[in-house]
Amino acid sequence: MAIDVESGVTLLAVYDVPTSIAFYRDVLGFEVIQTSTPFDDAKDNYGWAMLRKNFAYLMLNNMYEDNIRPEEPDASRSSHHGDTTIYFACGDVDAAADFLRSKGVTVHGPMDTHYGMRQVRILDPDGYGLVFQHVLRREEEITL
Asked: What residues make up the domain containing 45?
């Protein structure tokens, strides 16, 4: 019998949860729907948070136990982040690129791929790749 998978959620290990929440909530428009107990009274100072935007869910987890972390991110703990990319369906990639630029985000694209997608790529504060994309409609329809 096959496993009945109903949905999935990505967990990202981040250097600073408040910074990541601010990016995903205030720039990308995600809603914080659940958090751990805050470490203190500072805004968004959680060890873990779950966020949602429409049907996209993300969990942000502090990569340091009890929020005890070095003053600067330890490159050895995040060097693999560039190997991780989350792809989001996005109806208007060009408008998304303009919006992101207006928020001061470095945007790569929009570009059309050889496999039939129009994409915009950005990095989050921890170096994870985020791609906003939609299928190009052509006479020779591409089946994914």
From this structure: 8-66
Residue 109 lies in a domain: yes
CA-to-CA distance for 56 and 89, rounded, in angstroms? Answer: 9
Tokens matching residue 65: 């136990």
Give CA–CA dist 30/52, Å, rounded: 5
Whether the CA torsion 12, 14, 18, 23 is positive or negative: it is negative
pLDDT in tens, 2-13: 998 888 899 999
Position 105 in a domain: yes
pLDDT range class, residue 142, cuts 50, 70, 90: low
* Distance (Å, whole) CA 88 – CA 81: 17
- Output the domain CATH number for residue 32: 3.10.180.10
